[in-house]
Every structure is written in C-alpha cells, then in structure tokens.
Amino acid sequence: MVAARHVGLLLQLQGTTIRDVYEARMVTEPVCARMLAERRTEQDLADLQTVLDRLRAIVEAGFEAIPDVSTWSSASYRFHELIMQRCGNKTLAVQGAVLADIVDTHVQQSLAKELGRKGNMPERFGKTLRSFAKTIKLIEAGDGDAVEKHWRKHMEVAATYFFSSDAENTPVIDLFG
C-alpha cells in the first residue's frame, strides 16, 4: 500500500481519475492471465482455488453474514493479485499490485455505497464466483487466448458495477485524501 500511495500522489498531481487507473489494469491483467495460463504450476491453481473457496464460503454464509465490504473485497482482490504475481513477469506483478491497490480503495467505497441497495448484490457475487471458476478452468487448461479474452470481459463487466455510482469520475486524490 505504501507504493500505491506514492504512485497515487504522482497520479493525483497529474489529475488522474480512478477510471484511468482501472483502464491501465484492463490492459495488463488479461495479458497476465494469459501468461499465467502458459506458465502455471499446480500451486498456482491450488492458490486460486483457495481464494475461490473462501469467496464461496463468504457467499454461502449469507449476505447478512458479511461484516463489511473489506471481507469480500480483500478476498476478491487476492484473486486478481495472484493473477498478476504468478504471471511470471516481476515488473508486471509490481505494476499490477500498485494499480490494484489504488483501484481496491475505490472498489471498497463503491461496494459500501451499493450495500444500501442490496437487491443485486447476491447476483453480483454469484457472477463473480462463476467468472473466477471459469478463469481457473481456463488457466488449468493452458488456454491463454480464452483466459485473456474472458478476463478482459470480466474486468469490463466489473467496471460497469464499480463506476455505476461514479458519475463524476473520482480523481485519485479523493481516494487517499
């Protein structure tokens, strides 16, 4: 998080928005998913599955059992983090971690706003679980093309949720202020 704050400060000075940061992630994460599929180990698959199992347990405990948005957000963040860390490229892993930290702050704020409108939350959690399961399956199969395409779509769909309550396009400054 320290690196994210430093990069956040640089982005803040340039008037960068959180959408801009997320767009950068949408360029790099799908490529990292492809690289992971091409280089994955059994441990990579096991670690991704562990995160998916944790997320399933959170959902199965019931929506009301989620104590705060950070519980879901941190577990979901870990899945993204594993894709970046295990892709086999250290530079992309560090870059991805910094950008993900910045976006994670926004995700937690967005989820907190959405909790008041619980109507679509269980459905959204279910979609995320299915998407993560498909991602693991494609990585396990070593299908780089398919996982890159799928992960890009996953991130595009997630963006529609994260930015639905962000009409003014939050500047990075508002996240770390």
TrEMBL record:
InterPro entries: GntR_C, TF_FadR/GntR_C. This is FCD domain-containing protein. It holds the Pfam family FCD. GO terms for molecular function: DNA binding. The keyword Glycoprotein does not apply. The keyword Endoplasmic reticulum does not apply. Keywords: DNA-binding, Transcription, Transcription regulation. Residues 20-157 form the GntR C-terminal domain.
